[in-house]
What we know:
The chain has 235 residues and is α/β, with parallel strands linked by helices. It folds into two domains: 1-30; 31-225, Ribonuclease Z/Hydroxyacylglutathione hydrolase-like (Metallo-beta-lactamase, Chain A, 4-Layer Sandwich), CATH 3.60.15. The chain has four helices and 13 strands. It has helices at residues 2-30, 152-155, 176-186, 198-208, and strands spanning 32-37, 43-47, 50-54, 73-75, 97-99, 103-107, 110-121, 124-135, 138-142, 163-167, 190-194, 218-221, 231-232. α3 runs parallel beside α4 (198-208). The longest helix has 29 residues, at 2-30.
Amino acid sequence: MEVFIKFKFLKVFLKAFFFILNSRQIVLQFACMIITNHGKQFFKIQQGDTVIAINPISRDSKEFNKVKFGSNIVLVTTNHPDFNGVENATYGDNEPFIVDSPGEYEINDIFVTGFETKSLIDGKEYYNTVYKIRFEGMVIVFCGSISDVLESKIKEQIQEPDVLFVPIQGNNTISPAQAHKLATSLEAHAVIPMDYDEANLKYFLKESGENPKPVDKITLKKKDFSDMKGEVFIF
């Protein structure tokens, strides 16, 4: 009798567990991720009440545009005024968790892995961190200001991202052709080019065979990525 009761309890527990698990997966499929760009590589990624700011522009940058908002997490790829304006992703008394170097981080069920690379900006060499961000069932790879092709050992760990942010400037960063080749080799579902002028964007879109219309914001759900293969979004 006691064994039967334990078995019945276990059966009820497992049924409830899998119900909760399936419900969680359904919620993740329809959870919206909203992405906005605020100049250069300054992006705001929001899902529910969670805000991630990436490469906020510093007041010391020539690109500074007075944009400021609060965030939970700030990622900085390169210690350069164009990318390290943490104060512009901080608002009020809420201090964001700052990630500005390679390593593994866990912040409230958001997992961030940083990979060290190099960047050449205006002839000066900097360290650049490529970030892989996992949250709410989605995987984002943010390349930052990479100025050379990524090593194979890094590419192996960032394969098949849902969203790839890649620079296409071609001066201080990789070229549009290299960026397209990277996106293709990683098998990214969605690609967001960044840090470019009109000529480089035109070249990149020609390489990718895409002709998207500029948008003010990008709204994506996990379920959207199953039908995407290198789809390009631009601001």
